[in-house]
């Protein structure tokens, strides 16, 4: 399956669809999730087209990778979740429930988050 240039996050990145922006630089955009799963729920995505963490890990440049993860740390501090803790999730393909096939990390926090997954 190729990258879909019309996916919802591509439209947010190119300004066709609005978002509640938290952070932006040359490589990265972050905004609030439209259906938050915790008191704080922010999505962090590279501006370039990657399908998922697998594609990003394989194909992003060192400069882009560094910028991305530095942005994640900075955003977590800026939104006030670093002190009490937060969770970062990347969904990859159907078993994870990935909904949007443009790579993004979820930053979840602002409350105790409970177990990582349900018991098997
Ligand atoms: P995934 O399951 O792909 O890891 O997560 C996709 C996330 O994107 C979901 O948590 C969903 O609520 C969020 N989302 C889907 N469409 C939009 C949108 O148009 N705007 C924003 N801000 N979030 C969206």
Strand order in space, largest sheet: 1-2-3-5-4
Structural class: alpha+beta
Taken in chain order, the helices and strands follow as HEEEHHEE
Estimate the strand proportion: 15-25%
Please provide the count of β strands: 5
Q: What molecules are bound to this protein? A: guanosine-5'-monophosphate
* Global morphology: globular
Percentage of residues assigned to helices: 25-40%
Distance between the termini: 30 Å
Cα-atom radius of gyration: 14 Å
Mean pLDDT: 97
Largest sheet: 5 strands, antiparallel
- Low-confidence residue ranges: none
- Total helical elements: 3
Secondary-structure map:
Elements: H1 8-13, E1 21-24, E2 28-32, E3 40-46, H2 53-59, H3 62-78, E4 86-89, E5 105-109
Antiparallel strand pairs: 1-2, 2-3, 3-5, 4-5
The chain binds guanosine-5'-monophosphate (5GP).
Guanosine-5'-monophosphate binds at residues 8, 19, 31-35, 43, 91, 97-100.
Task: Please give a structural write-up.
With 120 residues, this protein is α+β, with helices and mostly antiparallel strands. The chain is 25% helix and 21% strand. It has helices spanning 8-13, 53-59, 62-78, and strands at 21-24, 28-32, 40-46, 86-89, 105-109. The radius of gyration is 14 Å and the shape is globular. The termini are far apart. The mean pLDDT is 97. Guanosine-5'-monophosphate (5GP) is lined by residues 8, 19, 31-35, 43, 91, 97-100.
């Amino acid at each position: 399956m190729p990258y879909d240039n019309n996916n919802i996050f591509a439209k947010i990145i190119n300004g066709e669809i609005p978002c509640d922006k938290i952070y932006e630089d040359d490589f990265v955009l972050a905004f609030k999730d439209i259906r938050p799963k915790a008191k704080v729920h922010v999505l962090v995505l590279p501006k370039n087209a990657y399908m998922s963490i697998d594609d990003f890990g394989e194909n992003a440049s060192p400069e882009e990778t560094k910028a991305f993860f530095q942005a994640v740390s900075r955003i977590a501090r800026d939104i006030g979740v670093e002190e009490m803790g937060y969770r970062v999730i990347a969904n990859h393909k159907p078993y994870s429930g990935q909904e949007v096939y443009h790579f993004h990390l979820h930053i979840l926090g602002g409350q105790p988050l409970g177990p990582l997954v349900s018991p098997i």
